[in-house]
Write a structure and sequence with these properties.
6 helices; two-stranded parallel sheet; 4-stranded mixed beta sheet; 173 residues
């Protein structure tokens, strides 16, 4: 650690649909995002504040694992991630993110169904917001949440990526 700050390490992961940034310590992954995600710089700043850490380039066992898992995921050979993750959010956000992890590979649900699943049927907008605050792309599969009318809805990593991910999972499912 640096002074009283915790040390997080960052690495790049190349994928078929763009470069990703992974940030972890020795035991948990904190962030996995496409590098041109909307608001990524702000997200990283928030992560540093919440975890009282500084981020440097480097490697950890967790970063090696996620790199390997991402490669297998994009090859269509991995449906469930085992990389240990750290959820840095509010209780409500964590509830939404834990529910997102239950969406089976190659399946999609609506924001309304997600709100119902966490017992907050009228909280669609808050659920969509928590979905957008997810810092662990693919592992917490927010790309599997679509609008009730089956339109894709938003995706901070870019709608073209959401479309690709859903199609890839349907083809490999």
């Amino acid at each position: 650690s640096v002074g009283s700050k915790k040390l997080l390490k960052a690495t790049w992961i190349n994928t078929k649909i763009g470069l990703m940034l992974a940030i972890a310590d020795e035991t948990q992954l904190y962030l996995l995002e496409f590098i041109n995600r909307r608001g990524l710089k702000r997200e990283i700043e928030r992560l540093c504040q919440k975890t009282e850490s500084v981020i440097i380039p480097g490697a950890t066992p967790v970063l090696s694992l996620i790199k390997d898992e991402i490669n297998h995921y994009f090859a269509g050979e991995l449906k469930t991630f085992s990389t240990p993750i750290a959820l840095t959010g509010t209780l409500f956000q964590k509830k939404v993110w834990q529910e997102l992890q239950k969406i089976p590979y190659s399946q999609t649900i609506s924001y309304k169904e997600l709100a119902q699943a966490i017992g907050r049927p009228t909280a669609c907008r808050a659920v969509a917001q928590a979905n957008g605050m997810n810092q662990l792309a693919l592992i917490i599969p927010c790309h599997r949440v679509i609008n009730a009318n089956h339109e894709l809805g938003g995706y901070a990593g870019g709608i073209h990526r959401k479309k690709w991910l859903i199609a890839q999972e349907k083809n490999c499912g």
